[in-house]
Specification:
There is one protein chain. This protein has about 260 residues and is α/β, with parallel strands linked by helices. It folds into two domains: about 140 residues, Rossmann fold; about 60 residues, Arc Repressor Mutant, subunit A. About 45% of the residues lie in helices and about 15% in strands. It has nine helices and seven strands, in the order H-E-H-E-H-E-H-E-H-E-H-H-H-H-E-E. A five-stranded parallel β-sheet has the order 3-2-1-4-5, with helices on both faces. Strand 4, helix 5 and strand 5 form a beta-alpha-beta unit. It is rod-shaped, with a radius of gyration of 43 Å.
Length: about 260
């Protein structure tokens, strides 16, 4: 960390050692510890850095501290400040830390970094907002491990993947819907019953002819069947094929010998 030496005014005056003269005190990072949320905090990582200030936020009903925490706090000396909550209630201490983050952001140079020591993910959205304003800030666990950056990065990646999938789906949707409409408009092939080889031959032949161009009357259909078999030679019966198609429901004969096809 490499912040500039700030002037001792307002909040900065409280953060810098009382013995420091103007221009001598260096402030690079402010640590906000949510002691109500995490009690087993390791302060040793900051005890040797004179440019760090630590603020420990204590709930109204907190009466004890671990001996190790107190020992490390004594090493920090005037660089550590306890902030006691006068009120109580759900998230009271969290709101106080959030309020102080805003105050300190407005009163300290942009080069000064912030860190919130807490397992409470509720801070993460606010920390992202501070980053957008140019403040370098992070949330740490009690051992100093970063808590919010990995989750934020993974969340951003997951959101990006979801957005890409949604965009791809939106692009493919018109084509998919068009394909479904075309498929629905296609005539559905009925499952054909078992028929003789001769009738199967005629069904195959007529099946290749568009509905509008098929023989429309019985006499025309019989002539068509005859024209199919004649070049093949052998014994065949147009009447047998007609009868089988009628019996199997493949065709129907209406008024004036009009033929309706069902295949």
């Amino acid at each position: 960390m490499g912040g500039a030496a700030p002037r001792r005014t307002g909040l900065l005056s409280r953060l810098l050692p009382a013995s420091a003269r103007d221009g001598e005190g260096r402030l690079d990072e402010v640590i906000f510890i949510d002691y109500e949320n995490v009690q087993r905090v390791d302060l040793s990582r900051w005890t040797g850095d004179p440019s760090v200030r630590v603020r420990v936020y204590l709930g109204r009903n907190q009466k004890t501290m671990s001996a190790e925490f107190v020992r490390q706090a004594q090493v920090l000396g005037g660089r550590l400040e306890y902030v006691n909550m006068e009120g109580e209630g759900k998230n009271h201490l969290d709101f106080h830390i959030a309020f102080d983050l805003g105050r300190f952001h407005a009163s300290t140079p942009e080069a000064v970094e912030f860190a919130v020591v807490s397992n409470d993910r509720g801070f993460d959205g606010m920390l992202r907002s501070l980053r957008k304003l140019g403040r370098k800030v992070r949330r740490l666990g009690p051992g100093g491990e970063e808590k919010d950056r990995e989750k934020e990065g993974r969340g951003d990646r997951e959101r990006s993947e979801r957005e890409r999938e949604r965009e791809k789906s939106d692009r493919e949707k018109p084509e998919r819907e068009r394909g479904e409409r075309e498929k629905a408009a296609e005539p559905q092939e009925a499952e054909l019953p078992d028929v003789s080889a001769a009738t199967a031959k005629i069904l195959e032949n007529i099946g290749e002819i568009a509905q509008a161009r098929r023989p429309k009357k019985r006499s025309t259909l019989e002539n068509h069947i005859d024209s199919v078999f004649k070049p093949l030679g052998g014994n065949y019966s147009v009447a047998s094929v007609m009868e089988e198609m009628l019996e199997k429901g493949l065709i129907a004969e209406g008024a004036n010998q009009r033929i309706t096809y069902h295949f």
